[in-house]
Design brief:
- By secondary structure, the protein is an alpha+beta fold.
- It is 53% helix and 15% strand.
- It has 2 domains: 2-168, no CATH class; 175-238, no CATH class.
């Protein structure tokens, strides 16, 4: 399914009428579509390439940009992970997306096609800057533009989740007696990364205070669902 979706969004460059709200914008002058003007080719190309890269990076079980781990949880993807799917012309000399890709991400976020959060990265001179990190792709939009059907998405999500669960069961059998702590740490790391960014999460987890949080989380997890723990002990997720 991913290959078909990638092909579809790449073809939007040549068939922008399939996604009018994305490629046609209001203009003072009469445009090509009800007073709207077609986006320039450079902008369309950046958007189509970014969408294709996001689809190639999807966890089809939940339409988040992440890599499921056999030990449970998932690894959130960075811009560096996405750059593997973009042509060299869209990368800067220091391995980051160029401005056209960042602008494409802002356009897609504005239309609620991509979900973005701000993360902080360290630049070469030691300064920090906030950069958008893509977290999810809106599958409803893909259905809206007739790229795929809900029934197909449901089948693929079920099949993908079954595969992830099977790998997790095998991993848990191989690591019997040691898995609970690792699973809890992976879950906690994921939640912390989503809240403060991967770099800060890694730094916080190296401190003893956060190890204590993980131990406390484990004890509570044996008695309560995670949703209850989150509501009753929010300090464990800060």
């Amino acid at each position: 399914m991913q290959k078909d979706l990638i092909r579809f969004v790449r073809d939007l460059y040549y068939q922008p009428f399939k996604a009018k709200e994305l490629f046609f914008h209001s203009s003072i002058n009469d445009g090509e579509l009800n007073g709207k003007r077609l986006m320039r080719s450079e902008g369309r190309e950046s958007i189509c390439l970014l969408l294709a890269a996001c689809i190639a990076s999807l966890n089809l079980a939940n339409f988040k940009l992440e890599t499921p781990l056999s030990s449970g949880g998932a690894k959130s993807l960075s811009w560096q992970d996405l750059l593997r799917f973009l042509p060299d012309g869209y990368k800067t000399y220091n391995g980051r997306p160029n401005d056209s890709i960042y602008e494409a991400s802002r356009v897609l976020q504005k239309l609620n096609i991509l979900g973005l959060v701000l993360q902080y990265e360290v630049m070469e001179n030691g300064d920090k800057r906030a950069v958008p990190a893509i977290k999810w792709l809106n599958k409803n939009w893909l259905v809206k533009i007739k790229a795929v059907k809900f029934s197909h998405l449901t089948r693929v999500a079920k099949y993908t989740k079954e595969g992830i669960d099977a790998k997790f069961k095998k991993w848990r059998l191989r690591n019997k007696g040691h898995s609970d702590h690792i699973i809890a740490e992976a879950e906690y790391r994921k939640q912390l990364s989503e809240k403060v960014g991967e770099e800060k999460a890694a730094r916080l987890l190296s401190q003893n205070s956060d190890r204590q949080k993980i131990d406390e989380f484990l004890k509570l997890k044996a008695m309560f669902p995670v949703s209850v723990i989150r509501k009753t002990y929010p300090e464990l997720f800060i």
